[in-house]
Structures are given as C-alpha cells and as structure tokens.
Design brief:
2 copies of one chain form a homodimer. The first copy, chain A, is mainly alpha-helical. Chain A contains 6 helices and 2 strands, in the order ααααββαα. In chain A, 68% of the residues lie in helices and 7% in strands. In chain A, strand 1 and strand 2 form a beta hairpin. The structure holds a DNA duplex.
Chain lengths: 148, 148
DNA sequence: ATAGAATAATTTAACATTAAAGTATCTAAA
DNA sequence: TTTAGATACTTTAATGTTAAATTATTCTAT
C-alpha cells in the first residue's frame, strides 16, 4: 500500500509507521511460507496443523476463532487436510451438532517435523533486532493489536 | 497463529515479538477495511485505486510490483474495477504489448472521498502510541521489512 | 413440553491469490 | 534479417476468503 499522503506531522508519522509495520509483516510471512511450501501446505493449512499440535483437538468453530478466519473457510481447509489424511473429523461426544478435528499420526509427524525449521526461520529473521529491541517491538505491537 | 513453542530464551523472545507483530497488523487491517466496505471495494481494489491516485497511471506490471501481488491477480482486480468504470485500460503509446491503467473521473472521485477517513482511521489507531514510540516502531519494522 | 432463539457446521456465490501455461510483442545477437 | 530469448499481459486451475443462506441440533423461556 504505497501512500504519499500530504498530511500534517501526526498523520505522516502514523502513516509511516503503519506502512513499515505492514511491509515488515509481509516480508516475515513470505519468508516463513517458504519453509512449508515443500510440503505442499498453504499458510492456512500450516496454521491449522500448528494450532492442533499445540492446543490439541478442537471444534471447527474453535479453530476459526483461534485462526481469526470465517467458519466457511475453516470447513474448506479441513476438507483439504482431510483429503491428505493429515487431520480427521470425529463426532463430538455430547453435542451432535459439533465435530472434533484432530491430527492423524501422519499429520502429527508432518507438523512436528516442520516446526523446528519454522521457529529457526523466525528467530533468524528477528535476529536483526537486539533482545532489547525485540522486547520493545513486542510491547508496542501488543498495544496496537488490542486497539479498539 | 497461536504458538506455545517450548524453546530457549532467544526463540521465545523472537516468537513473542513475531506473534504480537502479526496480530497488530491483522487488527489494523481489519479496522481499516471497514472504511471502504460501504463502497463495496475489496482491500486489493482499494489499494489499486490508492496507488493510481498517488502515483498516477501505470502499467499492470508496475501495479503488481507496488502492490506486491502476482500479475494474474492484478488482471482480475483491474477487470473488476473496470466493470464498475472506476479504472480504464488504454493502449501504451510505444509498446503494443503494454497497457496503461488510469482512474476514471468516477474512480478519482471515489478514492479521493475515501482517503481522508482512511488516514484518520490509521492515525486514530496509531494514536495509542506516542510520537516517540511511533518513530521507534517505524525504525524497528523498517529493519525487519528489509531483512533477507 | 414446546416454540423460538441460539449455536455448529456446511454450502453457495463472488472475489482474491498464486503458479503455470499461453499469446503477442519487443529486443538483441548472430 | 532472422531467430532466440525476454517482456507484458491474459487465461486457467486450484485453493483461500468472506458473507449470506441452509440444515441440524441444542438451549431456554414460557
């Protein structure tokens, strides 16, 4: 989003920070995506497997909430992972409306093999900043993320 | 992307900053998108109109470069904006392979009306940080964005 | 106990996104 | 000058994304 907006000092400061923030995120995501491209996983598919690995089996609606995506989308991502037998649907014990998504053995093996390189990649990219700068970045972006 | 990865101090620091950065960006983008949703513009369509407003008519390949999107995608975004007569294709003066995309009068009017609220929205959201913090954020994210 | 509201997942339609293949045009080297 | 490669845009196929509508089930107030 290239913006050369002729505004006052406050606007220029806000827009400059905004644009750098967006570009940094784009850059980090693009680089991270290279790690799992070889496994023919999309970003959403990787995120779902990661979510199931660290937080255990859950309902599609819970996945949607954690991944910040719409429900219809989640259904399709599950469909595509299920075709490859990386996740499975099982009926919910007490609520017949609901289902539980869990990793298969193959899915668990795949995502566990992908996590260490993924973490290393993020660590490498963030290493252009010092530990103190990383902490500052965390605090600043944390406040932005919860902004109303 | 919820990650509870059991790693060393460096990894935890990098991952925490990374996650906050991604969430902040998601939050900002979601809020900004509300400004042009009433005009039935998608984020890509808005970005293209904004690009043409501030940087003038250009070729699809230039739009792809500035918007960091693939060429095939640009063709479709142009198609959809052209259907609504917000942009137009004209032949390139000297290169018959190329075309030039420009705003129509209606497109110019629309994007000009949308920019002030958009800028105000970003300014408001960034206002949870002080001017000094914004400058710090800009510098830190600028370095991350250009990381190899 | 039952009607209405809420919830859970899916389906559908429209648009977005990428990668790969295709077509047309241009450029530069032999 | 001709040809090979590069460039510019489009098309196609597969997946992703959202919003809205649909179906099935559960919850809740009467």
């Amino acid at each position: 989003m290239p913006t050369k907006y002729p505004g006052d000092a406050d606007e220029v400061r806000a827009l400059n920070a905004y644009i750098c923030l967006l570009r940094a995120t784009e850059s980090l995501l693009a680089k991270s995506a290279q790690n799992f491209r070889g496994s023919r996983l999309t970003a959403s598919q990787f995120a779902m497997l990661e979510c199931l690995l660290f937080q255990g089996p859950m309902k599609p609606s819970e996945l949607a909430g954690k991944m910040l995506k719409s429900g219809g989308n989640i259904t399709m991502v599950i469909d595509n992972l299920e075709k490859r037998k990386l996740v499975q649907r099982t009926p919910h014990a007490s609520d017949r409306r609901a289902i539980i998504i869990s990793l298969t053995a193959a899915g668990n093996k795949l995502i566990e093999s992908l996590m260490p390189p993924q973490v290393a990649c993020i660590k490498d990219q963030m290493a252009v900043l010092t530990p103190g700068e990383l902490e500052t970045l965390r605090q600043l972006t944390r406040r932005l993320g919860t902004a109303q």
